[in-house]
Amino acid sequence: MSKGKLLIFSAPSGSGKSTIVNFLMQEHPELNMHFSISCTTRAPRGTEKNGVEYFFLTPEEFKAKIAEGAFVEYEEVYTDRFYGTLKSQVENQINNGENVVFDVDVKGGCNLKKIFGSEALSVFVQPPSVEELRRRLVGRATDAPEVIEQRLAKAEEELTYAPKFDVIIVNDDLETAKAEALKTISDFLGKIN
User: Fold this and answer.
1) Angle at Cα 184 formed by Cα 118 and Cα 175, nearest 5°?
2) Which tens digit of pLDDT belongs to each residue from 98-137?
3) CB 50, CB 132: distance < 8 Å
4) Where do the H-state alpha helices sit in 29-105?
5) What whole-number distance in Å separates Cα of residue 140 and Cα of residue 101?
6) Please, which residues bridge with residue 55 across strands?
7) How far is residue 114's CA from residue 116's CA, in Å, rounded to a whole number?
8) Collapsing DSSP states into helix, strand and coil, what is residue 102?
């Protein structure tokens, strides 16, 4: 069995990254894409099970793993609320032939690419413009106007990271962006279409 590869997806909020990743994972099982199972210190929600959606750790356990250098990447989102990816989990998944998907912020994407180099493909999903991003965020009607302004300010900063990624997919037309993502990922994984 051949080893899996790593696929890093980053984008400003509202760019359509999750839609594209879900399309690839659900419509193209031949790509064998699987999310990395992260660790978190938050409590399980609903029917979440340890080792399925997340590995649930106490803040003390998480900090001990940080000290051991066990994480590829981690972040403390709030005091004692950590999220992170274990090196051992990523290695298990790629050794089982799975292509591991990271859906991370732009800084996380850049850090993962530095760590994994040519084993990973980093993809930046970019909106056609900040104006279009504004239109999408307003159209979603899920955020208050001040939250939209915060997301747009963050997006402007995040867009400056795009050149650090291997591939930039401009999501102007969703079907075109999906096709471009499929071709890019298939080429990287060496699949024959």
Assistant:
1) 150
2) 999 998 888 889 989 999 999 999 999 999 998 998 998 8
3) no
4) 59-68, 87-95
5) 25
6) 39
7) 6
8) strand
